[in-house]
Amino acid sequence: MKPREIKPGIFAVGAVDWDRRLFDSLIPLPDGTTYNSYLIKSKDKTVLIDTVDPEKVEVLLVHLQELDVKNIDYIVTHHAEQDHSGSLPVVLEKYNSAKVICTPKCKAMIMDLSLAPEGRIITVDDKETLPLGDKTLEFIHAPWVHWPETMLTYLRDDRILFPCDFFGAHLATSELYVTDRDQLYESAKRYYAEIMMPFRAVIQNNLQKIKDYKIDVIAPSHGPVHDKPEYILEAYRSWAYDEPKNIVILPYVSMHGSTAKMVNYFTGALMDRGVSVKRFDLTTVDIGKMAMSLVDAATVVIGTPTVLAGPHPLAAYATFLANALRPNIKFVSIIGSYGWGGKTVDVLAGMITNLKAEVLEPVICKGFPEKADFEALDKLADSIAEKHRQNKYI
Ligand code: FEO
After folding, report:
1. Residue 385: CB partners within 8 Å, gap ≥ 6?
2. How far apart are CA 225 and CA 229, in angstroms?
3. Which of 57, 110, 171, 374 has its CB surrounded by the most CB atoms within 10 Å?
4. Does ligand 1 have an atom closer than 6 angstroms to the CB of 221?
5. Which positions ≥6 away from 56 have C-beta within 8 Å?
6. What is the predicted pLDDT for the residue at 341?
7. pLDDT in tens, 105-128
8. Roughly what angle, to the nearest 10 degrees, separates helices 230-241 and 181-191?
9. Intervals of the chain under pLDDT 70
């Protein structure tokens, strides 16, 4: 793959990682990813926007060679995470007069994480500009999108926003630009859920911060480039601002069939009351798909048996993750079973302290569920449907 020109003098020089299937040893990547890096050749200066994951640094170096880049003046480093900054030492060594440009917080972090040398780093303030002759860069601080040190860069003359992870998508594709909007929407929403959702209020602030910029192109650091940026901007506005929908997320695990019986009954009870259900069998779940569903859902109900006096570890994992992602969930509950006792409800209740959600009466049955347990599940389904109706989710 050769470097591709976005506009005169602006090239995509990053790498596609078709085969990567896990990010941060946590996040499934069903469609691979890309580490986007961009080169700006202006009249006076040559600027590299971010580097790539160290695994792919050779791809970046070959692209720079193909563009006959003998000298880089600046490497704009938006974010210290290693998939964008981990190649800095190699690139700095090869281009030995290049200076890194980043926020003050990012400076400390790239020195720690990528061992970037202090003397090669220049820090910039929010809204500071850098003239490049016939082009001008403007740096926009955007802390917590999604680390504390992050910034974006706006190339004024060409009206291109380089937002690093913001508006990104883990999607390996041969296309430079978004060509399949449905596929992009799925990947970008998954990415938002896993990376950006914990910082929803900050995302809202940053959407406000860039709203008056004239943007023709958004060139993120993962996934294809947006040459019609309103689509992704609108998607972000919807994910960050919209009220939850009439959806119950039901992650569950069952050992001997009792909890599964309850989950099946409860699913039907919710459907009969006009409530949408998204079920996730935690023994086989794609955790990214579950995260994506949390963006829209009003309610989460965890289904778990009792193991060693507490929730099944898979249920604990899903609960921990949902709590960490801080979705805009309004109601939570627990259904499940036990053999002789335990503290399943107490343990799970103690794990959702980030969620500003009302806890609805759990339904925990002893052994295999009987009539009274099904009636309790009906009552919980009634309560959820009523809450959704009161809040106009239905
Ligand atoms: Fe793509 Fe937060 O790194």
Report:
1. 270, 273, 274, 275, 394
2. 9
3. 110
4. yes
5. 14, 15, 17, 35, 87
6. 87
7. 999 999 999 888 999 999 999 999
8. 40
9. none
> Which pLDDT value is given to residue 51?
98
The region that residue 334 occupies, defined by phi over 0 for left and psi between -120 and 50 for alpha, beta otherwise, is beta
Q: Which helix (H) or strand (E) holds 373?
A: helix 371-390
Instruction: Find how far residue 356's CA is from the centre of its chain.
Output: 20
Please report the pLDDT score of residue 114 as a whole number: 87
Q: What is the spatial distance between Cα 331 and Cα 360, in angstroms, rounded to a whole number?
A: 7
- Report pLDDT for 115: 86
Give me the domains of the chain, ranges plus CATH numbers. Answer: 4-241 (3.60.15.10), 245-390 (3.40.50.360)
β-bridge partners, 300? 249, 332
CA of 358 to the centre of ligand 1 (A): 33
Distance CA 328, CA 234 (A): 18
> What residue's CA is closest to ligand 1, atom 1?
165
Retrieve residue 97's tokens.
């007069």
Does residue 170 come out as left (phi exceeding 0), alpha (psi in the -120 to 50 range) or beta? Answer: beta
Q: Report the atom number in ligand 1 closest to the C-alpha of 195.
A: 2
The pLDDT, as a whole number, for residue 232 is 98
d(CA 294, CA 327): 6
Residue 298 has what pLDDT?
Answer: 98
> For the chain, how big is the Rg over CA atoms in Å?
24
Residue 73's CB is within 10 A of a number of other CB atoms, namely 18
Residue 141 near ligand 1, beta carbon < 6 Å: no
Ligand 1 atom closest to 164 (CA) = 1
Q: What pLDDT, on the 0 to 100 scale, is given for residue 202?
A: 96
